[in-house]
Amino acid sequence: MKKSLKILVIRFSSMGDIIYTTPVVRCLKQQLPGVEVHFLTKPAFQYIYDGNPYLDKLHLLKPSLGETIAGIKAEKFDYIIDLHNNLRTAIIKFRTGIPASTYKKLAVKKWLSLRFHLKNLVAPTHLVERYMQTVKFLGIQNDGKPIDYFIKADHSLTKLLPPSHQGNYTAFIIGATHFTKRMPNKKIISICNQINGPVVLLGGNDVKANGDEIAGAIGGKVYNTCGNTTLDESVFLVSKAKNIIGFDTGLTHIAEAFNVPIASIWGGTAPELLGVQPYKVKNALVIGVELPCRPCSKFGLEKCPLGHFKCMYQIPEDVVVSFANNA
Question: What is the rounded distance in angstroms from the CA atom of residue 302 to the CA atom of residue 109?
């Protein structure tokens, strides 16, 4: 009788990169009879795989890499699928001696593309497709389905939103880790003023003041949840939205799991460089301005290097508004 495989998939960070690993885990579980699939990540990101039915066990990176390696050795895995490809995963693979398949980062091509603005050097292949290459040797094929995210609790719109915003609302995700990924408040205010229905602002505590300013400038049509909801509640709100407007940030990527229409707006970063444009969303619009200075970074910066921030200020408002009013 053929032995069932036991496989460890590794990706330490960040939110968006980890959410795009979920099709790999799902395809492994569904296409290899009897397989046992484990996943290793940082404690800060365990929520992404909590409740995932395709995962047999979630492992969290320990303070000591030696402890993590000891735990991996004890599990007696048949293969490691390394979707991070950094120094720590290299050490893990070397010290455990477990056969491994590793994600190709294309780091040099990405650096050259960014440094010299070589638009066609990196093929615009989605990150999911690149991840899937690492399990091709096992006979795994991409099932063509969206990413997975499983809401952790039963939430209620009546508890999270006022009656005026409990139906047919646009979810506007205004947060992002870095300044050059976020749209300026006055630009968001202008767009929200032109949207026909109610708007719910989503984001963390870091953009609570931004949300207050936007809602205060517009009035009752906009409801600010930034800093007042958990991530799981925010995910629930995007899953129930009529459509979504968002920037290059984790919550926008997670929203893709629910196949709600998404307008994905890009400032100083570029989806084709990272391979993280909306994946398997039936109605998705990617919006970015062609500029000689864009992209200015892979992951975002704290300010526009040239001071003009044209990549966000020149985003065509009519395109965003038309999407919100019609999608």
Answer: 24
Percent of the chain with pLDDT strictly greater than 90 = 89
Contact 38, 58 (CB under 8 A): yes
Other beta carbons less than 10 A from residue 228's beta carbon = 13
> pLDDT per residue over 13-72, tens digit each?
999 999 999 999 999 999 999 999 999 999 999 999 999 999 999 999 999 999 999 999
The DSSP code sequence of 39-56 is: EEE-GGGGGGTTT-TT-S
pLDDT of residue 116: 63
CA-CA distances (angstroms) from residue 123 to 4, 149, 255, 322? Answer: 36, 27, 24, 30
Closest by CA to 83, choosing from 100, 60, 66, is 100
Q: What is the mean pLDDT of the chain?
A: 95
**Whether the Cβ atoms of residue 113 and residue 119 lie closer than 8 Å to each other:** yes
Decide if 248 contacts 176 (C-beta within 8 A): yes
Tokens of residue 243, six digits: 């459509």
Report the percent of the chain where pLDDT is more than 70: 97
Quick check: 81 and 134 in contact, CB under 8 A?
yes
- Mark residue 65 as left, alpha or beta (left: phi above 0; alpha: psi -120 to 50; beta: remaining): alpha
- CA-to-CA separations, 191 to 53, 117, 245, in angstroms, rounded: 39, 30, 11
Whose tokens are 């408040």? That residue is: 185
Q: What is the amino acid identity at position 132?
A: M
Q: Which helix (DSSP H) or strand (DSSP E) does residue 72 occupy?
A: helix 65-75
Contacts of 307 (CB under 8 A, 6+ apart): none
